[in-house]
Write a structure and sequence with these properties.
The complex is a heterodimer of chains A (111) and B (114). Chain A has 111 residues and is mainly β. Chain A has no helices and eleven strands. The radius of gyration of chain A is 13 Å and the shape is globular. The model of chain A has no long low-confidence stretch (mean pLDDT 93). In chain B, strand 9 and strand 10 form a beta hairpin. The mean pLDDT of chain B is 94. Chain B has no helices and eleven strands. Chain B has 114 residues and is mainly beta. Chain B is 0% helix and 50% strand. Classes of the chains: A mainly beta (111), B mainly beta (114).
Chain lengths: 111, 114
Amino acid sequence: RKEVEQDPGPFNVPEGATVAFNCTYSNSASQSFFWYRQDCRKEPKLLMSVYSSGNEDGRFTAQLNRASQYISLLIRDSKLSDSATYLCVVNAPSNTGKLIFGQGTTLQVKP
Amino acid sequence: EPEVTQTPSHQVTQMGQEVILRCVPISNHLYFYWYRQILGQKVEFLVSFYNNEISEKSEIFDDQFSVERPDGSNFTLKIRSTKLEDSAMYFCASKTSYSTDTQYFGPGTRLTVL
């Protein structure tokens, strides 16, 4: 089983749509979870951390289900500028802070 | 806002040559990382560095790779004898402390090995 698994997509949605991405992780000892955004040939940029209680930042909502080892990201009212690859990222349960990345889910928002 | 910088942005080299990729982490950060991303693939951890020594390295980080923090500001990744399969984007990242989760990534160096 892959350490962090995501549906690569692509997800093609119209502007204004709501879209959801899912991710599973294999190591139950992982403690920190993130969604990063990556534009083509650019560095990953932190979108939001993910907490068990769920968290929201504007149009973005992230959820974590530790029992199912499942992470989600919901984007409401999609904008053209949301087009990117969304990376599900988990910290490895070591004391070095290394991050384990999923393959990413590609979102294309169309006018 | 402080940011991680990397040079060069693109490096082209011949197979078998040595390359040094340079990073300047954010100034008060203490933990440093190198990741790489082969075109079309996921971002992969290479090495973590703290207190002037490697704290963890991946299977990818073999004897051909080394890291150094020579002067308290630069953080370098050296590949001694490049192979075609080393062609990738190399990202440097840093964070402030052990208890901090957020890593800040540099813009990357695209390495092309011919």
